[in-house]
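A reminder before we start the practical. When you read a complex entry, don't treat the lines as separate problems. The point of joint prediction is that each chain is placed relative to the others, so the output describes one connected object in space. Small molecules and nucleic acid strands, if listed, are placed in the same frame. In the example below there are two entries. Take a minute to note the order of the lines before looking further.
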Amino acid sequence: NAGVTQTPKFQVLKTGQSMTLQCAQDMNHEYMSWYRQDPGMGLRLIHYSVGAGITDQGEVPNGYNVSRSTTEDFPLRLLSAAPSQTSVYFCASSPGLGTGELFFGEGSRLTVL
Amino acid sequence: DQQVKQNSPSLSVQEGRISILNCDYTNSMFDYFLWYKKYPAEGPTFLISISSIKDKNEDGRFTVFLNKSAKHLSLHIVPSQPGDSAVYFCAASLGGSARQLTFGSGTQLTVLP
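Here is the predicted structure of the whole assembly.
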C-alpha cells in the first residue's frame, strides 16, 4: 500500500539552483496536486492536474513548473530556487472531484540558502 | 486575506475531556468542509467532512458542526485521547471539488494524559 510517494524527503539548495520534487501514486487517481506548507499559512495550492496531459495553476504557482505525462507521476520543478521557496511540500491525489478528499504524501522539506 | 481561519494556534486538554477546535470562513460560496489531521513528519490525513446542506456529521468520537449563518464550523472530539495530539487543519471547497480546497493555518492539539 504505497499510496502517494514523494522524493526526496529532504533537500538543501543554493539560490538559483534548479531541482525536481518527484511524486508518484499507485491508486490510479485522476487528480493530483502540489501544496506548500508554511508556518501560520496552512497549506496553499501550487499546481494541480485533473488527468494526464492537463495541468493548471493554483494559488501560488510562480517559480514552479509541473507536467503530467502519466496518471501515476506529477513532478514539481523549481526552475531557479529562491529563499522564499523554503517550505514543506506535499503532493496529494484524489480519485475525482466529487468529495474533495485528498490523499497526501509524507512531504518534502526544502531549504534554499 | 485568508478565506479560512483557525484563530487558535494551539489547544491543550486533559485526556477524557472534550476537545473543541474552531474554524471560521469568509467565502459564503464554500459548500463542503473537511478536517484533516497531521502528525509530525507525516502528510495530512482526512478525518471528517460535512456538506453545507447539513449542520452536523458524526463519526465515532469525532463530530463536526456547521453554522452557515455564522460561517463557522467546529470539530468536537469526545473523549480526547493522547493519540489525538496532532495538528488539525480545517479546509473548505467549492462544489465538493478537490481543486478548490482552501486550508486554514492549523491548530496544534495536545491531549495531556
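Discuss with your neighbour: The first strand of chain B starts at residue 4 and ends at 5. What might explain this?
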